[in-house]
Design goal:
Length: 277
């Protein structure tokens, strides 16, 4: 809208001109209301942001709590490792004892079969030897021998329990000798020599079968008809009345540096010769 300014004498229609301005200002004022409403909305949006803020709290651990946690963890781990070591130690012990038991059982079974098949020459075929007579080929001689600073039993006798180890498969009365030998590494083993007649002079051989390894002790007790025990025996000696033992007790000890296992058995011989004279 355009207003023209006209002057009539002293009259000035300025007022009429200012009204539209006032109306314009009113319109301007009316336009400001939406701005106020917008600011109000902004203010209303800002309020939730203020309401979501929470006071800061401390969630960390103190040095004392951390050290205490490490101490508890160390105790738990030590207990677990000790349990594992005990389990492994027990398992190894059971495994070793099982191996030693099986080995000793096989050794004693072999010796039992040899003694049960013992061959003894009876009177009148047997006669006490004269001074210059050769020894009885079917004699029983039990003694001890020093091996590695330890005394071990050794025995020589004859038996029908021959085990042929060569191409010759013939049977017969064999000379059997149990003896202990030290290997190059210091380990002690029990060996069994087995030869058919004619019996060669005895000598230790590397090819003789091994009955038992990890040997720590071997003791043979000879029991006569009166149940008296002796550590040695010689059936060609007047000291023993030219008799043979009625039973033999075998005491065997095997093991390592820290553990030992003892085994014992008594074998009643099927035949024995009574004292002569």
């Amino acid at each position: 809208m355009i207003y023209e300014l006209t002057t009539y004498g002293n009259k000035k229609p300025v007022t009429s001109i200012q009204r539209p301005v006032s109306s314009i200002q009113n319109r301007g004022s009316s336009i400001e209301y939406p701005e106020s409403r917008i600011e109000h909305r902004v203010s209303s949006i800002a309020r939730p942001a203020t309401s979501n803020q929470q006071p800061a709290t401390s969630d960390g651990f103190t040095l004392l709590e951390i050290l205490l946690s490490f101490l508890i963890l160390g105790i738990v781990m030590t207990t677990i490792m000790a349990s594992f070591n005990a389990v492994f130690s027990t398992t190894d012990t059971l495994k070793n004892s099982s191996q030693y038991f099986e080995m000793a059982k096989n050794c004693l079974n072999r010796m039992t079969r040899d003694f049960e098949a013992l061959y003894v020459q009876q009177s009148p075929l047997y006669k006490p030897p004269d001074f210059d007579d050769p020894p009885d080929p079917y004699r029983i001689v039990g003694s001890t021998a020093d091996v590695g600073g330890t005394s071990f039993a050794t025995i020589r006798f004859t038996s029908s329990a021959h085990i042929p180890l060569d191409k010759n498969k013939r049977d017969g009365i064999a000379e059997i000798i149990y003896y202990v030998q030290a290997k190059n590494d210091g380990q002690l083993v029990l060996k069994r020599a087995d030869h058919l007649y004619p019996y060669p002079p005895f000598e230790e051989k590397g090819g003789d079968p091994v009955l038992c390894i990890y040997l720590k002790s071997l003791v043979l007790k000879y029991i006569d008809a009166e149940d008296s025990e002796s550590d040695e025996w010689d059936s060609d000696s007047d000291e023993y009345g030219y008799a043979t033992p009625a039973a033999v007790r075998i005491q065997l000890e095997v093991g390592n540096e820290t553990t030992s296992y003892d085994f014992e058995t008594t074998i009643r011989l099927a035949v024995h010769r009574q004292k002569i004279g």
